[in-house]
Every structure is written in structure tokens, then in C-alpha cells.
Amino acid sequence: MLSSVTVRAPAKVNLALGVGPLRSDGFHGLTTVFHAVGLYDDLVATPLRPGSGVQLVVEGEGAAEVPLDSTNLAWRAVTALEAYGASPDVSLAIRKGIPVAGGMAGGSADGAAALVAIDALFELGLGKETLYDVAAALGSDVPFALHGGTAIGSDRGTALTTALVRGTYHWVFVLAEQGLPTPLVFREFDRLHDAATVPDPEVPDDVMSALRAGDAEALGRALHNDLQGPAVSLRPHLAQVLSIGEEYGALGGVVSGSGPTCAFLARDDEHAVDLAVAFTASGVCRTVKRANGPVPGARVVDQRSTA
Ligand code: C5P
């Protein structure tokens, strides 16, 4: 019997995010290229006495903004796995390293981490397919947090195909003071576009060929996000952040997912340090983080047994 399981799950940035028209189920069809980067949330799951229920604690930067009730995706993961034999009596302790409400799928990473941790803790032996199905029911970005690496996402972002990638990419992330709720950004997309003229998004050839070639300069030029316009419309300050990145010689810059974090691609580690220092000195932001990608998806990094 295991007494605790620790799972580490990565943040993501969308190298390309094409958004289709609003569907009747309230979601938008997407074609995206997900890329997992080395900013992590760690989740420790521990069994509790029968009748305790879920106990959730969150610490780290932005923890105060994270819900501690059954709306949290990690909590919802426990509830979803009860149907597969998981005990509902479990403590979840999350340490945030991923910006909260930043467009980097931090909540989804916690959902994915909880799925992997509960599966291991209660020895459910769930297959990959079941875990991915439960993940997709939790949220559009949760399957990719399990998958990691670099992958094309279609449907809601939940249907994944591993992408062929050469090399490591060096990123600088410029964080905003206040998060942006994803549904708000999609609503702004709808407001700014006439649904009848929004084309179905396609896999971007320029991003895929840059990744195959390991060509960071070409990838920098190809970064694209259909949610960038809506995010900038809601937070005009982001336009300034993006233009400063260009001025400082980033290979490319893009709003990450639904924002407000902005992601900038650097040539190498040294260039990433230079960019990060320049951003910090510019005063346009409070927090800058560096991370490389691709990195693996949610995985067990420690597990302990009762003596
Ligand atoms: O799937 P998730 O719960 O993360 O989605 C949050 C919200 O973002 C959805 O309720 C929807 O408003 C919007 N969304 C969307 N199309 C997607 C993914 C998310 O409209 N493909």
C-alpha cells in the first residue's frame, strides 16, 4: 500500500492556435500545436481516513487565486476516478510553479497530475485510453498535460497527435499581474469575428516544418495565436509587451493560449537570460520566467510505501 505519490506536471504554450467558429456545444473547434515547457506544478496525494473526503491545499506564487473546492480540476479528477474505484478520502497538496490563470494550463496540469497520482496511489491500473478519456471530460487542455512533448491538438484541443520535433527551444515568459479567464477570451473572439466567416483552422505547415528542422528562427517567425487579438483587446498593455520583445530581438513572441502571459522564443539559453534581464529592467512586467521545451507530460516523481 502506498502512503504518498508525487506527480510533476508541465505548463504549455501553444506554438500555433487556430480557432474555428463557436459550436453548438459551447466550445470552439481548434487546431493547435501544444508544446510542454519546464515550468511545473507538483502534486502530492496522500490517503486519508474513511469519511475525510478531499482535502486540498495549494501553495506557491498565485496560490491565493486558486479555488480550494470541488471546482478545482485536481479535486474533480478525484471525483471522476471514484467510478473506477478510487477512494474519495485523499489529501492533495499542490505547489504551483505554473502561472495561475496565465494561459499556460496550470489548472489543467493539476487535473492531469491528480489523475496520474490517484491512479498510482490506489493502484487502479487505468490504461492510457481511460486516463485520456477522463482527462478530456475534465477540460480541453488536460489530455495534453498528460501527453507532454509537442503535439497537434484538434477537436476542442483534446484529440492529440505527437509532433516530430528536433532540438530544444528556449523560452522567456512574461507574466501579467492579473489572470484572464479563458471563457472571457473566447467570448471576445466571438465578439470580434463574424462566425459565418471564421474558417475551420488547419495544421500550420510553417510551424511543423520549423519543428521538424529544429529551426528556432523559422519557428519564431511562425508563432501564431488566433486568441492574441481578443486577449490584447481585453488587455491593451499586452501589445506593448509584445512589441518590446520584438525590439529586444526575440526570435518571435506570442500571447500564450488565452493569455495574459506572453511567450518569447530565444536563440539559446544565453539569449534567453539576456531577454529576461531586459524585460525585468523595462518595468513593463513584474515577473519573468525562463523555461525550455519540449518536456514530458505529468509523471510520478516520487512514491512512498507504508512501512
Ligand atoms: O475545456 P475548458 O473547461 O478548459 O474550457 C473553458 C472554457 O473555454 C469553455 O467553457 C469555453 O467557453 C472555452 N473554450 C472554447 N473552446 C475550446 C476550449 C475552451 O470555447 N476549444
| CATH fold title | Alpha-Beta Plaits
CATH class: Alpha Beta
Task: Write down the Rg.
Answer: 19 Å
Q: How many β strands by DSSP?
A: 12
The H-level CATH homologous superfamily, spelled out, is GHMP kinase, C-terminal domain
How would you sum up the global shape? Answer: globular
DSSP summary: helix tally: 10
Kindly state the mean pLDDT as a whole number?
96
Q: Spell out the helices and strands N to C.
A: EEEHEHHHEEEHHHEHHEEHEE
Ligands, ions, cofactors: cytidine-5'-monophosphate
Number of domains: 1
Percentage of β-strand residues: 25-35%
Secondary structural class:
alpha+beta
> How can the largest sheet be summarized?
8 strands, mixed
Poorly predicted ranges: none
| Helical proportion, percent range | 25-40%
Task: Provide a descriptive summary of the structure in words.
The protein has 307 residues and is α+β, with helices and mostly antiparallel strands. It has a single domain (1-307), classed as 2-Layer Sandwich (Alpha-Beta Plaits), CATH 3.30.70. The protein has helices at residues 73-82, 106-121, 128-138, 142-147, 182-192, 205-213, 216-222, 228-234, 237-247, 269-282; strands spanning 2-22, 28-47, 54-60, 90-96, 150-154, 159-162, 169-175, 224-225, 252-255, 262-266, 287-293, 299-305. The strands form 2 sheets. Strands 1, 2, 3, 4, 5, 6, 8 and 12 form an 8-stranded mixed beta sheet that branches. Strand 5 (150-154) and strand 6 (159-162) form a beta hairpin. The protein starts with a strand and ends with a strand. The model has no long low-confidence stretch (mean pLDDT 96). It binds cytidine-5'-monophosphate (C5P).
